[in-house]
Amino acid sequence: MISFDQSFAALADPTRRAIVERLAEGEATVQEIARPFSISQPAISRHLKVLEDAGLIETRVEGSARPRRLKPEAMGMLWNWLGQYRALWEAQFHKLDAVLEELSNEEQPVPHDPREVHHE
Amino acid sequence: MISFDQSFAALADPTRRAIVERLAEGEATVQEIARPFSISQPAISRHLKVLEDAGLIETRVEGSARPRRLKPEAMGMLWNWLGQYRALWEAQFHKLDAVLEELSNEEQPVPHDPREVHHE
Q1: Which end of chain A is more exposed for a tag (fewer CB within 10 A), N or C?
Q2: Is this model's pTM higher than 0.90 or not?
């Protein structure tokens, strides 16, 4: 079971989001995960622990190797939570679009007819 | 521009997620937002400030009213970030399904053919 509190808190960090992006491509060892980062391996391990405690990733045991992998069901739950009212916030998007379009139409100057004769 | 750090941190709280769910249904005043909660209106206002600082909601000025509303583009950005590797984590889901199916097939006893003659 994932915790929404812990999961969203875990994602509130750019390094941890980058780790999630890396693991979305497939499982990886701590060494592989740490490689592109300029921070120490123990610091990466601490970030991995936060992600694992939140239920977003898990450790697989394979001999002496401990590859980490994403838990797709956890990602799916967060995605579904954000998406549950998508129809509603997309409707607000479209309403905003309509208002902006109306405003831009109002701002357009009425085309001037050069044949028009002005009486003042 | 939304901050992913601040947005995900803002959502790491059950009251703030409930406020987002309320506002997904349409804009509301602080009084309306506070009504279903057993916490004080100043506490709700503090939660609203966290959500507004994160760029997830905004305040509309209408006479003396200050209704809050969700910023759909911010919700959309978070949803898209979570969904960007969806094909990848869904593939992992299906791989897991396939493994589970294979395991359950292995556990199923081979149907016994009563016409079969055993020679021992």
Answers
A1: C
A2: no
CB B60 within 8 A of CB B80: no
Q: What is the pLDDT of residues B34-88, one digit of tens each?
A: 999 999 999 999 999 999 999 999 999 999 999 999 998 898 899 999 988 777 7
Within 10 Å of residue B44's Cβ, how many Cβ atoms? 19
Task: Tell me what ipTM this predicted complex has.
Answer: 0.75
d(CA A116, CA B6): 58
Contacts of A25 in chain B (CB under 8 A): 85, 88
C-beta atoms of B76 and A93 within 8 A: yes
Question: Residue A116: pLDDT above 60?
Answer: no
Helix (H) or strand (E) holding A69: strand A68-70
Average pLDDT score, chain B:
84
Residue of chain A minimizing CA distance to B70: A89
State the average pLDDT over residues A28-41.
93
Between positions 41 and 100 of B, the ones with CB within 8 A of A are: 69-70, 72-73, 75-76, 78-79, 81-86, 88-90, 92-93, 96
CB contact under 8 A, B11 and A17: no
Residue A53 and residue A6: Cα distance in Å, rounded?
8
